[in-house]
Design a protein that fits this description.
Blueprint (H helix, E strand, L loop, with lengths): L1 H22 L19 H15 L14 H15 L1
Length: 87
């Protein structure tokens, strides 16, 4: 289980970095419970975040669909799920 926690922290750190860069928000705003709406991410910003996540984690998902109410934690969970399936 410790390995999974470490992986979650690593994924969260990368997701946070991408969101800060793409949504141009303050680091403190990107919490696990923050939604895309909380982070002022409009549809174009959510699309670019999805594209960057796809590139960073090599998800092979054509379109990572991030809704306004998608939380950072949900994104992290989705990525971990995808990474585990590809192992």
């Amino acid at each position: 289980m410790a390995g999974l926690e470490g992986k979650a922290e690593e994924v969260f750190a990368k997701v946070k970095e991408i969101i800060i860069r793409e949504a141009r928000v303050d680091e403190d705003s990107v919490t696990p419970d923050a939604t895309m709406n909380d982070l002022y991410a409009d549809s174009a910003t959510r699309m670019s975040i999805g594209d960057e996540l796809d590139r960073e984690f090599d998800l092979g998902v054509l379109d990572v669909d991030l809704a306004e109410d998608t939380t950072v934690q949900e994104i992290v969970g989705f990525i971990i799920e995808q990474l585990e399936e590809s192992e």
